[in-house]
Amino acid sequence: MKKLLSLLLCACCAVLAAGCSPNKVTRGFEAMDTYMQLDVYGAGDSLADALQQQIDRLDSKLSATNAAPAENVIYQLNQKGSVEADAEVLALAKQSLELCRETDGALDLTVYPIVEEWGFISKAYHIPSQERLSELLPLVDFRRVVCGESALRVENGMKLDFGAVAKGYAADLTVESLREQGINSAICNFGGTVAAYGKKPGGSAWKVGIADPENSAAFMGYVTCSDKIIATSGSYERYFEGEDGKIYSHIINPKTGYPVDNGIASVSIISENGVLSDGLSTALFVMGKEKAQEFYSSRADFDYIMLTDDNKAYVSEGVYDSFTLAGGYAFDVVKIKRQ
Ligand code: ADP
Ligand code: MG
Question: Which residues contact 55 (CB under 8 A, 6 or more apart)?
């Protein structure tokens, strides 16, 4: 009898504990050349397994750098100039090439030969000669990627790279799966692209940190939001110092072949779509301050936070009220309105 009572008591405690904090599964792993972490509430290991597998599958299918697993469509395309592609790859190619067009080539998924030349893939960094860049620049033109009914094609020497949008696509697929599974609450970080899904278990909105460009392990501020994907491109993420003492970052202006050097430290995009957020974070970085504001004024599907080297934070009107500066940071916060 005593045993039965204590068993019952244990069961009650377990129920109470579950009521206080719904079971949460946390999964950290490396994929797409970065560290990812999924925190999903009201789910178990099997969902976390499935989500992780989905991302691994994307990585081996889409990476321009992973040499040669048989299923790597993009690697094959870049080797052979054409490849049979499934509906998923074709849809992603369509969506992201459209974004290249809308940003007038500030985002250009064919800039890869230049990214390689600067050593950002091999990590053997060097400053290419102007002659070498002039040879490579004609290979950069997203308009010459042919996205057919069942195949992708590029011209001789051209290369396609989803690097600027892949983490955003991983975020979109994850969100879709969470929705299908009836999950209400999750926060997933795909190496700097964050999906703030639903609300916190307690019902309040998520607070997503914006990295301090001078110390990317710290946050200079927070955006309060729910059901948004926040992607950040920062010059601090990958760069090298040239023999001339200058800093060269991994975000390339596709028109010049040179790393962007326009006083911008990072751009975060807040929208409902991961590919859009991820692609635009790169594109607005390339555009610079004025063009970014013009572009923002021309559409209604995203907001942004742009940090500059002179410690200004340009925050667009749709997120201005949900942005808070972290303690100890002296950024001058400027509201950007649609013109
Ligand atoms: P990160 O990979 O650091 O999160 P991004 O999402 O901005 O940053 O993606 C940048 C990557 O995309 C670079 O590492 C490079 O391979 C590629 N890239 C650089 N400049 C461009 C550009 N203008 N358009 C498209 N891709 C770019
Ligand atoms: Mg990006």
Answer: 29, 31, 32, 36, 170, 173, 174, 190
pLDDT attached to residue 236: 84
Nearest 10 degrees: Cα torsion 281, 285, 289, 290: -90
| Nearest ligand atom owner, CA of 280 | 2
Task: Give the single-character DSSP code of 260.
Answer: P
d(CA 158, CA 138): 9
Q: Is residue 232 within 8 Å of 191, Cβ to Cβ? A: no
- Residue 118 in any domain: the answer is no
Q: What's the domain count of the chain?
A: 1
Contact 88, 150 (CB under 8 A): no
Task: Go through the chain and tell me how many residues it has.
Answer: 339
Residue 5 has pLDDT above 90, yes or no: no
Residue type for position 285: F
**Residue 318 to residue 311: CA distance in whole angstroms:** 21
- Examine residue 175 and state whether it is found in any structural domain, yes or no: no
Closest CA to 234 of 171, 292, 177, 282: 282
Range of the domain at 292: 2-40+183-336
Q: What is the CATH number of the domain that holds 211?
A: 3.10.520.10
Pocket of ligand 1 (CB under 6 A): 107-109, 111, 115, 120, 161, 163-164, 192, 233, 237-238, 250-252, 254, 278, 281-282, 286
pLDDT band at 3 (very low <50, low <70, confident <90, very high): very low
Q: Which of 249, 251, 287 to mutate to test the pocket of ligand 1 (most atoms within 8 A of CB)?
A: 251
302-329, pLDDT tens digit by residue? Answer: 999 999 999 999 999 999 999 999 999 9
Contact 334, 316 (CB under 8 A): no
Q: Is residue 74 in some structural domain? A: no
Q: Which two tokens stand for residue 313?
A: 């934070």
Q: Is residue 283 part of a domain?
A: yes
Q: 168: which DSSP letter? A: H
What is the separation of C-alpha 202 from the centre of its chain, rounded to a whole number of angstroms?
27
Q: What pLDDT, on a 0 to 100 scale, did the predictor assign at position 256? A: 97
